[in-house]
Amino acid sequence: xxxxxxYTQIGHNLEKIDGGRETxxxxxxxSGNSQRISFVLGLELVxxxxxxxxxxxxxEFLNYSKSEIQSTSHRVEGDVYYxxxxxxxxxxxxxxxxxxxxxxxxALTYANRSAVFYDxxxxxxxxxxxxxxxxxxxxxxxxxxxxxxxxxxxLELGQFNQALISFNLARDLLMTLSTLQQKDKLGxxxxxxxxxxxxxxxxxxxxxxxNDKISSIKSIEQEIIKKRRSAPELHRARNPLLPSASASVxxxxxxxxxRCLVATEDIKIGETVIVEKAHASILxxxxxxxxxxxxxxxxxxxxxxxxxxxxxxxxxxxxxEAWDSYHQFECGLTDFLCRTTRDVNTGQHGLLxxxxxxxADRRLIIIANEQEKSPESFASQVFDSANYDTxxxxxxxxxxxxxxxxxxxxxxAVYLTSLIQIxxxxxxxxxxxxxxxLRLLHSYPCNAHEISxxxxxxxxxxxxxxxxxxxxxxxxxxxxSAAFPVVSLMNHSCNPNVVHLCYGDVMVVKVIHxxxxxxxxxxxxxxxxxxxxxxxxxxxxxxxxYFRCRCQSCVEDWPxxxxxPKLTSRPDIAxxxxxxxNNFKKLSCCYPExxxxxxxxxxxFIGHLDAMESDPSINLPVQEYNKAQEGLKxxxxxxxxxxxxxxx
Length: 648
Description:
The chain has a four-stranded mixed sheet. A three-stranded antiparallel sheet has the order 5-14-13, with helices on one face. The protein has a two-stranded antiparallel sheet with strand order 1-2. It contains 24 helices and 17 strands. It folds into three domains: 1-63 and 282-447, no CATH class; 68-209, Tetratricopeptide repeat domain (Serine Threonine Protein Phosphatase 5, Tetratricopeptide repeat); 488-646, Beta-clip-like. The protein is α+β, with helices and mostly antiparallel strands. Pfam families: SET, zf-MYND. GO terms for molecular function: histone deacetylase binding; N-methyltransferase activity; protein methyltransferase activity; S-adenosylmethionine-dependent methyltransferase activity; zinc ion binding. This is Protein-lysine N-methyltransferase SMYD4. Residues 292-331 form the MYND-type domain. Residues 247-526 form the SET domain.
């Protein structure tokens, strides 16, 4: 039963009593979110409507557990695909086996998955899985082959000391066995030991280091993380009052624009002005087997939660951080929460609001509720994305909402908070937490951002080594949503001067149009002059964000792209841009390597944009400028996050 069904039932019950009018009239007199939550909690018909779904959630929570039978079934299916060399399908079923497995089942599946990673030359993930397999009690009589694979991985990475340790362990284990086959294998291991020692001697003569620091699971995972496409550095030093932004950006408050970000100096196209880690984020349900529940990065080999079978993580580090921060409160209820909000209006915002509140210190929520300050005070304070206070004080537009809309959000806040508190056996939800969830339910429709990654469809035989892909195969894929308080400070323009990109749960803002000192940093809220008629833009922005846009493209009523004039005054620039666009469309993208072509294409597009902005004879808008800007945006997106999307 999702929330819409529950709320429909509440609506029917209200109709029977007084047509709903009297209840909503009394609700409208509540002076703030705290009173609204108290009012909803005082309605017997609301509590009665919650009874059945809360009972179902409690039963699911009490009965959730790992399953050896399911884990074995998934592992056997993975083995079948592995024998057929269908590597990604094998990994997919091994991942499912790990999510529901425990004890020896985990050990066996980690070992099998390590073999797939080894065959696809993913030495680090193979090593990580081997160690996890051993930690979970991999059978001693089978350990020899695992130690040998471990040694082979270390050897591929040039870690000769570690390789020798693993090969020696494999040899010692093999010597305890007496079969003829094992004796033949012993000869192979002795030969490997000799060859490894010779390679080590040659490496020392050449002055190559033998790094022994990569040995534990944590150190292996750090090496895996280093190989990701990490977010770029800010182009300038950080602004001490706005730590996620560069010193070329400051936060001010104006009578007509409210709080906004402006440039303290001229900023060039391509510069990075904001790098912000999400205050809180959620992953969409369908990506739980391919992306980290905590940092939202794609991972070929997720690590499961110790207790539930509903989430996976890219590393033990993310698993432990998530548990300490919020997962301990939602463990065993994650799937139920996703189902109850799936395809529900404001459902994703509700989950994100709940996650935000679970991460917050209850004491800080109380302080934020009691000591709300006016927006004017922000300009002189540190606006740190990590602090709950920055999220709490984002504009919520509750005064613009109808009584019916606010009532629905209040009911959702109470329901979601009630679900979480099932774990504690409480009959009544914490009003402080419910009030905080309600405030964010007002705020997030205008302030939350989607997390999108560039995804490539993966055929069943695809391996982890570089593979050439056509640009047309790549598509943008929304995998989750998050709260970025600093990014939310940017106002809208139908012709923005920046674009934001996602690196997991980190958002990067880059300049795509020159910004002069004193000019505002302007984002786009989804409605661009080149693709949406002015009337449609104004209507949509007013409905969702409660303002009327007065940007240059609206005031001057710029035409759609198809009606925009072409650059006839500078055929030399126009021809070069057309050529670069055609060349870019023919580019092959290699995963996981091959970013140099896209970096060069981005550099060329930046050059064309600069040339057009520097030429006083060119009056924007022109089609060629749009083409170059869109080409740059696509290049930057491909450089940010390009990962496989498992397709069957």
